[in-house]
Amino acid sequence: MTTPLSLSCDGCGQSASPAHLARRLQRLEWTTRYRPVHIQALLLGGIAPGADAAFLYCPEGNYQGEAANLLDTLRISRAGRSTDAILTDFQKGGFLLTYVLECPLESGVSPADAQLLLDIQLPAVIVRIRRSLKPKRLVLFSRELTTLAGKFSEAALGSPVFTGSYGPLALDRSPSESEMEGFRRSLATGTLL
């Protein structure tokens, strides 16, 4: 009897079942459709949200959680607009949203294992930012990146790194108006807080 081959997903380092890979490829396709030619601000989160409604590029457009908070923070109106119009506005702003772990966590992954996956994926993400994405600025926006923020600054990415006055803006919860204003100000001026 042969042992089944276990592959790791290149986007998150987790065990890659066929369903996991299919979901990753679907989300990559959704994201690529709205990638700007010149990335003014790369918005980088720690771990991709599990719910499609919280994933900004989901074509269904019933934005919730992180996706809704991001659009609200950027003042991109959703009322009465198609998903394509909303995402086109996001793209025209020169924004691209991605994650260190491009896939949601599988069930049973502990917080310690999640942090280990983030640490393992970080070098590949830094290379991708430096060689492929080449943003004008990098904006970290999730609590999972708080401990890794310094590593981005030390990586000589060729672009400033925004983390906010109190660390990365946590979009998985509703940020305060002052946090959102600081976030918008940094994107408009390119300055670090």
In CATH, the topology is named: Uracil-DNA Glycosylase, subunit E
Poorly predicted tracts of residues: none
Strand portion, in percent?
5-15%
What is the helix content? 25-40%
Total number of helices = 6
Category by helix and strand content:
alpha/beta
Considering the chains and any ligands shown, give keywords for the structure.
193 residues; alpha/beta; four-stranded parallel beta sheet; globular; Uracil-DNA Glycosylase, subunit E
Summarize, please.
With 193 residues, this protein is α/β, with parallel strands linked by helices. It has six helices and four strands, in the order H-E-H-H-E-H-E-H-E-H. It is globular.
Itemize the secondary structure elements and their pairings.
Elements: H1 18-32, E1 41-47, H2 65-73, H3 83-92, E2 95-101, H4 111-133, E3 137-140, H5 149-154, E4 161-162, H6 177-189
Parallel strand pairs: 1-2, 1-3, 3-4
What does this structure look like?
It is a single chain. Helices cover about 40% and strands about 10% of the residues. It is α/β, with parallel strands linked by helices and about 190 residues long. The chain is globular, with a radius of gyration of 16 Å. The protein has one domain: Uracil-DNA Glycosylase, subunit E (3-Layer(aba) Sandwich). The longest helix has 23 residues, at about 110-135. It is built from 6 helices and 4 strands; from the N terminus they run H-E-H-H-E-H-E-H-E-H. About 35% of the residues are buried. It has a 4-stranded parallel beta sheet with strand order 2-1-3-4. The protein has helices at about 20-30, 65-75, 85-90, 110-135, 150-155, 175-190, and strands at about 40-45, 95-100, 135-140, 160.
